[in-house]
UniProtKB/TrEMBL annotation:
It comes from Streptomyces asoensis. Gene3D superfamilies: Metal-dependent hydrolases. Residues 7-332 form the Amidohydrolase-related domain. This is Amidohydrolase. Keywords: Lyase. The lineage of its organism: Bacteria, Bacillati, Actinomycetota, Actinomycetes, Kitasatosporales. The keyword Nucleus does not apply. It comes from the Bacteria.
Amino acid sequence: MTAAPTVDVHAHVLLPEVEALVAGRPGLTAARALDARRNGAAALAVSGRMVRDRAPRMTDVPARIAAMDAQGVDVQLVSPSPSHYHSWAPRDTAEKVYRLANEATAAHCAGAPHRLRGLGLAPLQHPDLAVTALDHALGQGLLGVEISSHAPGRELSDPAYEPFWSRAEDSGALVFLHPFGCTLDERLDRWYLSNTVGQPTENAVALSHLIFSGVLDRHPELRILAAHGGGYLPTHIGRSDHAWSVRPDAGADCAHPPSSYLRRLWFDSLVHDPHVLRELVRVAGADRVLLGSDFPFDMGSDDPLGTLRSAGLADADFHAVRGANATALLDLA
């Protein structure tokens, strides 16, 4: 177990070429206005400075590797910044975005192929394009795709995504569920609630759609990794189990108690609380939790190994989360 590399499965790459592509296109202004309403002016000002300060670690491979070395991380699974989703984009723009994002992410990882693995993007606003985007990502040598918790007007339980789930299952691709934005909108526009409350909420809602709709029953071999420890769902899964057991509407499309599906998903360790991390390991299983830092954003952990150690896990569980689980899931051996 201790011989496995230390693997961080939640690390981001910034792709200026994607932003250059969408600049000036119809729809971008409205999308940015919505983002501003959801986050509030104070949060946007702080985030702008933070991203500028940390951008070199998301764009420059030597800077990234130096930071990884300082953290004691051997391998990162690199995914595009969720700001690159651009779920407002019409079909032609969305196709250009995912192709450019996939190719640019693959090129970034090629700068240190023994240290970096990558994920592409899939445009959920166009369900059929999500399938071709996944195939394109795999063709670039990426391990799968990153997706948001929903698309405008569509939840992950939407039947239109069935071909995407089928293709992901058949190909063995990894699907990294990472929300961007929260539909609670202006209710969260102060004190950075858009992230601190919004992201865990979006994770919980998206995973609940996958569980209660039967997506995980129909596609039992799906490999889904949830960011932010799955949000609120793992620590409140008892409420879901209770509803499933007492209400016929809650259990209509889900074959088993919701808690049982946690052991068929994977979760990163980024929960910011050692007690919550221990509970995540308990309910999902030590073999289903992977080290994640949200590198290099300020809402992540600059010392992911130290954060993991603070949970006081059993030695075998610590090394499983540190890297053995990811080594198996990503086939790094």
